[in-house]
Design a protein that fits this description.
This protein has helices at residues 3-26, 33-55, 58-64, 69-93, 97-119, 125-145, 150-168, 173-197, 215-239, 244-250, 253-265, 272-322. It is mostly helical and 328 residues long. It has one domain.
Length: 328
């Protein structure tokens, strides 16, 4: 299999895990979301730490955590991903998986705006139309449901901020994520200590010191680390082997699976307002994807043309140099 083929398989596998993750967290609906979040951070740290230890790269982690301004960037990324993870878990447990899937549909369009704001990237007419359609979809949901889809918007913005921090970071994916969960680890341990020793309940009002009281729940909470880490590693593997336009298109597998899980498995309500808003989002993503593919092709053609011109110039220079000098 070619590198591109391996990349596609890895990207599909990553999005399959992300897309079906709501089923996993729904099985933990009896556990307070903050407790699930704390375990997710703890066991992600353990898993990523073992990966770095196996690779002999723990010094890279130490350097990342002592890199001055770089630590602030890692901390901001950690806050953003904590909001994203925590809100996602809460949304699944409270029957808002449709809203969560909408958030991941909106994210690519939010990232376009963040690219313009933070990296001075050109928005372009097609992407402007796509963003306008997404804004219209959010407005329709706000009007029809009587409240804005806060979960969707916050999930998208939090992941957008996380992406900005990752783009600015010089660290590799495994080191950067390990650094983030390392900063989160004291908070996670403090919360779990409070749950087990002080009876903290969190926002749900449930008082369950789950880990250790049930072998099945304990195993599922511990496996939330590999469940978090594995798709990130697969995503990193695929991103190095695929064009960005291909990566962007394949990422829509994630929210699409989440959407079908919400409607077909969880039987969450899908109102006529959702029926108006989601097609607008899908149309926006289609316009965005076509624009991304065209931009990618133009960039590759320009790169090939430049390489051809450079090769021709080099060949001509070599031929001129090889000719004997004329005598006078």
């Amino acid at each position: 299999m070619s590198d591109a083929g391996k990349g596609i398989v890895a990207m599909l596998a990553a999005n399959l895990v992300w897309g079906l993750a709501p089923i996993y967290y729904k099985l933990l609906a009896h556990v307070p979301p903050l407790e699930v979040l704390a375990h997710r951070s703890l066991w992600s740290f353990v898993f990523f730490g073992l990966v770095l230890a196996a690779q002999g790269r723990l010094r890279d982690l130490l350097r990342a955590l002592t890199a001055g301004r770089g630590v602030l960037r890692i901390a901001l990324a950690a806050v953003a991903i904590t909001i994203n993870w925590g809100l996602f878990i809460w949304a699944i447990q409270t029957g808002r998986t449709v809203e969560a899937s909408l958030g991941y549909y909106i994210f690519p369009l939010i990232s376009v705006v963040f690219g313009m704001l933070f990296f001075h990237e050109r928005l372009g007419r097609a992407r402007l139309v796509a963003f306008a359609l997404a804004a219209l979809a959010v407005a329709i949901l706000t009007w029809g449901l009587g409240a804005p889809p806060v979960v969707s918007v916050v999930l998208a913005i939090a992941f957008g901020i996380y992406s900005v921090m990752k783009k600015k970071s010089p660290l590799g994916p495994v080191v950067s994520v390990t650094a983030e969960v390392t900063l989160l680890l004291p908070l996670a341990l403090f919360w779990l200590w409070g749950v087990h020793n002080l009876g903290w309940t969190g926002v749900s009002g449930r008082n369950l010191a789950t880990f250790g009281s049930s072998s099945a729940d304990s195993l599922m909470l511990a496996l939330s680390g590999p469940l978090t880490a594995a798709p990130l590693i697969l995503f990193s593997y695929a991103s190095r082997r695929l064009r960005l336009s291909t990566v962007g298109l394949l990422q829509y597998v994630n929210p699409t699976l989440q959407f079908f899980v919400a409607v077909l498995v969880f039987a969450e309500p899908f109102t006529r307002w959702h029926g108006l808003a989601f097609p607008l989002i899908w149309l926006a993503l289609a316009i965005y994807s076509v624009a991304a593919i065209r931009q990618d092709r133009s960039a590759r053609r320009a790169s090939t043309s430049s390489a051809t011109v450079a090769l021709t110039d080099t060949k001509l220079s070599s031929e001129v140099s090889a000719k004997p000098s004329a005598t006078t």
